[in-house]
C-alpha cells in the first residue's frame, strides 16, 4: 500500500457531502434523514477492486459553504491531492458555489497537480434546478469529470472515485483518480 491520498469534499451547505460519504463508505444513510451540519470529519476508505484492495483515501468532509461562510479554509487547498466538489441538482446556488471553489483551488494550488471531480446529488428528487447539459458544459470547460448521483443508488456512488480502464488493459485496471504520484 502506498501513500494515502487526501481528498477534500467541499461545497454548499446541505448539498449532500456527508450523505454521499456515509452512503459510499458504510451504506447506512437514508435519503432525507437529518444530519448535523458538519464541522470537520475524516473518513478513511479502502477503494477495493475486483482484484483486491488498491487504494487508501483519506476523505476530509468539510463544513458547508454559504453566503455567510463563503470560503474553503486555505489549509485544505494546501493539503489536498484531490477535491470532490459537491452540488445539489436541486439548488442553483450550490452549482454556482462549485464554480467559485474551482477558481479558489486554481488560484491557490500553484503548480501542484490535483484531481478535481464534480458530483451533483439528489437526482432522485423531482425539483431539478441544474440541468445535466449545463453542468457537463461547465465540467468540460474546467476539465473536471462530472457525475450525477443519488444516495439512493449506492452502487453508482463509486463511479466518481475510480477510473476504469478498458478490459484489454492489464491490471491494475481500476484505480483511484486521486492517487498521488508517490503512491504505488
Ligand atoms: N433525496 C436525496 N436526499 C439527499 C441526497 N443527498 C443528500 N440528501 C439529503 O440532503 C440533506 C443534507 O445532506 P448532508 O449530507 O447533511 O449535506 P452536507 O452537504 O453534508 O451539509 P453540511 O454538512 O451542512 O455542509 C440530508 O437530509 C440528506 O439525506 C440524495 O441524493 N437524494
Ligand atoms: Mg455534512
From TrEMBL:
Coiled-coil ranges per UniProt: none
Record's signal peptide: none
One function term, GO molecular function aspect: GTP binding
Annotated InterPro entries: KBRS (IPR042227), P-loop_NTPase (IPR027417), Small_GTP-bd (IPR005225), Small_GTPase (IPR001806)
Keywords: GTP-binding, Nucleotide-binding
Gene Ontology BP term (one): negative regulation of canonical NF-kappaB signal transduction
Domain of life: Eukaryota
Protein name (database record): NKIRAS2 protein
Source taxonomy: Eukaryota, Metazoa, Chordata, Cephalochordata, Leptocardii
Amino acid at each position: 500500500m502506498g501513500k494515502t491520498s487526501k481528498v477534500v469534499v467541499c461545497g454548499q451547505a446541505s448539498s449532500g457531502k456527508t450523505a454521499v460519504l456515509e452512503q459510499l463508505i458504510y451504506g447506512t444513510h437514508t435519503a432525507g434523514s437529518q444530519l448535523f451540519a458538519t464541522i470537520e470529519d475524516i473518513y478513511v476508505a479502502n477503494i477495493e477492486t475486483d482484484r483486491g484492495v488498491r487504494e487508501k483515501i483519506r476523505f476530509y468532509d468539510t463544513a458547508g459553504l454559504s453566503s455567510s461562510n463563503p470560503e474553503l479554509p486555505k489549509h485544505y487547498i494546501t493539503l489536498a491531492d484531490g477535491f470532490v466538489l459537491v452540488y445539489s441538482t436541486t439548488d442553483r446556488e450550490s452549482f454556482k458555489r462549485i464554480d467559485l471553489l474551482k477558481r479558489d483551488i486554481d488560484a491557490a494550488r500553484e503548480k501542484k497537480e490535483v484531481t478535481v471531480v464534480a458530483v451533483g446529488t439528489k437526482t432522485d428528487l423531482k425539483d431539478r434546478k441544474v440541468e445535466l447539459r449545463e453542468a457537463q458544459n461547465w465540467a468540460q470547460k474546467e476539465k473536471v469529470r462530472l457525475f450525477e448521483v443519488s444516495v439512493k443508488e449506492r452502487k453508482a456512488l463509486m463511479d466518481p472515485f475510480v477510473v476504469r480502464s478498458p478490459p484489454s488493459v492489464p491490471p491494475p485496471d481500476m484505480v483511484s483518480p486521486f492517487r498521488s504520484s508517490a503512491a504505488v
